[in-house]
Design goal:
CATH topology of the largest domain: Arc Repressor Mutant, subunit A
Helix content: 55-70%
Number of domains: 2
Number of helices: 7
Radius of gyration: 18 Å
Largest sheet: 3 strands, antiparallel
CATH architecture of the largest domain: Orthogonal Bundle
Order of helices and strands: HHHHEHHEEEEH
Strand content: 5-15%
Structural class: mainly alpha
Length: 150
């Protein structure tokens, strides 16, 4: 089976003119909008595993905390890396199957105490948690992504 025959079509509506202009500029560079989008997806999502492996060394050595961190990264808004504290506690409790009342003690506080490059991994800010994503932690720690050669 060829890669083309197993491909899935994905579509999205884009109303932001600046984003459309950026996509068109990238299409000039990559030869088509489709190739530009594929490149952006690869860059954004495909290399996450290697960065996350490097970042694991900077998280508390507790599997519940590490899994909780992953849930927070998955659930936080993609561009601002923020999530409401109550929502965060509910989502972590649900996905890790632990009582909501223990989420703060078991997951959030250890991540608040954990610092990388002087910055908290999870920072409380007016009822919201700011979650530093793996690429941010890698940058703060000075960790090179294994895929970039160096």
């Amino acid at each position: 089976m060829s890669a083309e025959s197993s491909a899935k079509r994905v579509s999205a509506r884009v109303r932001d003119e600046d984003l459309l202009d950026a996509l068109n500029d990238a299409a000039d560079e990559y030869g088509s909008r489709s190739e530009a989008i594929r490149a952006a997806l690869r860059e954004t999502y495909a290399d996450r595993d290697s960065v996350e492996v490097n970042v694991a060394a900077y998280l508390p050595n507790d599997p519940v905390v590490r899994r909780g961190y992953k849930v927070l990264c998955d659930e936080a808004s993609p561009f601002q890396s923020r999530i409401d504290v109550d929502t965060a506690m509910s989502r972590v409790a649900n996905r890790l199957n632990i009582p909501k009342g223990s989420v703060k003690r078991r997951v959030i506080l250890p991540l608040e105490r954990q610092r990388v490059g002087g910055e908290q991994v999870v920072e409380p800010n007016w009822g919201v948690l700011v979650v530093r994503r793996p690429d941010e932690i890698a940058a703060l720690a000075g960790v090179d992504d294994a895929s970039d050669g160096g």
